[in-house]
C-alpha cells in the first residue's frame, strides 16, 4: 500500500511506528553525537524531509522534530569545532526546512502537528539564531504565520468534522497551547535578529496581544500576554522605548491583578522595562517603587516576592540615583535569600556585588546579613557558576579587609555553614 492510499485513515501499526521511531532515533543521534554524525546528516535529512507531509500525524511530528534537530546539530558541530561552513551546508538545510514548516503551520489540519512545528522553529531560532531568518522571506513568513495563529486563521483552528471526536475542554486546551507556541516566537525572534530590526514586527504583534491583557479576560490570557511582553522587552533592549506608552500601563495594571501568576509576570516585566528603557523610564521610578513596595508589604506568594527583589535590583542597576536606597535596601535584605524563583538570583547578587564594589555605605552596613545569606546559597543549585564566582570574590575581599571581623560574623552561623565560608575564603 502506498502512503497516499492511507490518507484520511487513523492507523496505528508497526509500519507507521517504524517511521515515527526511526525519525525520533535519528534526531536524537544527531543531537548527541556531534561531529561524528555529520557524514550521515545530509542523507538522513534528505530521507526524513520526504515524509514531513506524511498522512499519519505522529509521523509528521517526528519528521518535523527530527529535521529541526538535524539543523541545530549541524550548527552546533560547526560552532563547537570552530569550523567554517564553507559550502553553505547549514543554509541549504534551512532553505529546505523553513518553507515546509511555514506551509505546515498554515495548512495542516492537526493542532498537535502545528504545535510541534512552532516549537521546532522556536528551538531552531534559539540555537542557530539569525541565520534561520537571514532570508527576509523566511522572517516575513514566520512572523506572518505566528500572527495567523494568534488570530485563529490557520487551517487547524477552523471547524473540522474530526473535532467531534475531541471533547470541548481538550479542544480549548489545544487551542490555548497552540497560541502559546506562536507567542513564544515573539521574544525569540527579538533575540535572533536584534531589537532594532524586530521593532517593526513587534508593532504588528502588539494589537494582537494587548487585548488579551484586559482585566475582564481569563487569567490564562493575561498571564500569557504579559509574560510574552516581559520577555520581549528584555530581548529588545533599548529598541523597546517607542513602545513604553503601550506597555507601561499593562504592566502596572498587571501588578494589581488578583492572580499571582499575572502579578508575577507583570513585576518581572517592570524590571525588564527599567533595564531596557534606561533614561526614558526614570520619571516613572517613584511610581514604580511605590507599586512594588506596596505589593511586597501584602504579598503572600514567594515567587512574586522573589520577582519584586529582581525588579528592584534592575531599577537600582539602571538608575541608582532614582532609588531611595535607605528605604529600599533594608526591605530587600529582609527578602533574602530568594525562596523559589532562583533565576532572579543572578540579577539580585550581581546588584549586591556591584554596590559592594562601589563601596556603597548602606551595603557595607549590611555585610553581616549578606554573609549569612551567601552562606545559605553557596554551593547550591540556587545560583549559577558565574554568580558563585562573584559571591566567593566578595567573601574573600571582606575577609581580607578584616579577618577577625569576618570570623566574628560567621561564628553565629551553624557549623556546616562556617565550614563552607572558611572553604570559600581558602579556595
- Over the alpha carbons, how many angstroms does the gyration radius reach? 25 Å
Number of β-strand runs: 0
- Strand content bin: under 5%
Uncertain segments are: none
Helix/strand-derived category reads mainly alpha
What are the secondary-structure elements, in order, as H or E? HHHHHHHHHHHHHHHHHHHH
Average pLDDT reading: 93
Helical residue percent band? over 70%
Number of helices: 20
| Net shape | globular
End-to-end span in angstroms?
68 Å
- Largest sheet data: none
Q: Describe it for me?
A:
Helix 15 (345-357) runs parallel beside helix 18. The chain is built from 20 helices and no strands. By secondary structure, the protein is an all-alpha fold. The model has no long low-confidence stretch (mean pLDDT 93).
Fill in the keyword field for this structure:
427 residues; mainly alpha; 0% strand; single chain; 71% helix
What's the short story on this structure?
It contains 20 helices and no strands. By secondary structure, the protein is mostly helical. Helix 2 runs antiparallel to helix 3.
Topology:
Blueprint: H1 14-33, H2 38-49, H3 57-80, H4 89-107, H5 111-128, H6 136-150, H7 168-193, H8 195-209, H9 219-236, H10 244-255, H11 260-277, H12 285-298, H13 302-318, H14 325-334, H15 345-357, H16 361-365, H17 367-377, H18 385-401, H19 403-410, H20 415-426
Amino acid at each position: 500500500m502506498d502512503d497516499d492510499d492511507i490518507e484520511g485513515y487513523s492507523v496505528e501499526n508497526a509500519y507507521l511506528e517504524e517511521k515515527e521511531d526511526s525519525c525520533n532515533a535519528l534526531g536524537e543521534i544527531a543531537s548527541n553525537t556531534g561531529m561524528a554524525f555529520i557524514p550521515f546528516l545530509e542523507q538522513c535529512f534528505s530521507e526524513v524531509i520526504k515524509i514531513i507531509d506524511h498522512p499519519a500525524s505522529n509521523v509528521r511530528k517526528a519528521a518535523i522534530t527530527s529535521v529541526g534537530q538535524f539543523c541545530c546539530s549541524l550548527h552546533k558541530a560547526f560552532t563547537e569545532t570552530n569550523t567554517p561552513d564553507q559550502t553553505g551546508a547549514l543554509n541549504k538545510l534551512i532553505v529546505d526546512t523553513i518553507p515546509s514548516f511555514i506551509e505546515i503551520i498554515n495548512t495542516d489540519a492537526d493542532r498537535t502537528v502545528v504545535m510541534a512545528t512552532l516549537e521546532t522553529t522556536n528551538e531552531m531560532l534559539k540555537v542557530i539564531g539569525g541565520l534561520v531568518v537571514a532570508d527576509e522571506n523566511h522572517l516575513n513568513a514566520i512572523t506572518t504565520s505566528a500572527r495567523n495563529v494568534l488570530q485563529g486563521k490557520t487551517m487547524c483552528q477552523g471547524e473540522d468534522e474530526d473535532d467531534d471526536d475531541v471533547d470541548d475542554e481538550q479542544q480549548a486546551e489545544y487551542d490555548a497551547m497552540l497560541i502559546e507556541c506562536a507567542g513564544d516566537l515573539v521574544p525569540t525572534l527579538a533575540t535572533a535578529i536584534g531589537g532594532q530590526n524586530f521593532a517593526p514586527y513587534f508593532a504588528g504583534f502588539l494589537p494582537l496581544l494587548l487585548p488579551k491583557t484586559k482585566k475582564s479576560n481569563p487569567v490564562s490570557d493575561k498571564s500569557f500576554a504579559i509574560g510574552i511582553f516581559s520577555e520581549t522587552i528584555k530581548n529588545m533592549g533599548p529598541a523597546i522605548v517607542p513602545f513604553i506608552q503601550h506597555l507601561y500601563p499593562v504592566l502596572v495594571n498587571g501588578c494589581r491583578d488578583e492572580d499571582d501568576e499575572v502579578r508575577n509576570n507583570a513585576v518581572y516585566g517592570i524590571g525588564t522595562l527599567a533595564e531596557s528603557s534606561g533614561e526614558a523610564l526614570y520619571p516613572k521610578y517613584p511610581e514604580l517603587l511605590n507599586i512594588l513596595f506596596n505589593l511586597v508589604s501584602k504579598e503572600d506568594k514567594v515567587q512574586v516576592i522573589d520577582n519584586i527583589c529582581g525588579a528592584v535590583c534592575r531599577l537600582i542597576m539602571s538608575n541608582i540615583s532614582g532609588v531611595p536606597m535607605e528605604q529600599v535596601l533594608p526591605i530587600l535584605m529582609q527578602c533574602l535569600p530568594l525562596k523559589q524563583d532562583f533565576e532572579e538570583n543572578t540579577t539580585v547578587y550581581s546588584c549586591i556585588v556591584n554596590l559592594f564594589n562601589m563601596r556603597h555605605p548602606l551595603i557595607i552596613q549590611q555585610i553581616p546579613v549578606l554573609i549569612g545569606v551567601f552562606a545559605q546559597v553557596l554551593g547550591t543549585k540556587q545560583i549559577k557558576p558565574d554568580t558563585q564566582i562573584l559571591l566567593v570574590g566578595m567573601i574573600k575581599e571582606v575577609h581580607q579587609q578584616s579577618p577577625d571581623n569576618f570570623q566574628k560574623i560567621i561564628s553565629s552561623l551553624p557549623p556546616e555553614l562556617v565550614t563552607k565560608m572558611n572553604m570559600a575564603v581558602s579556595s
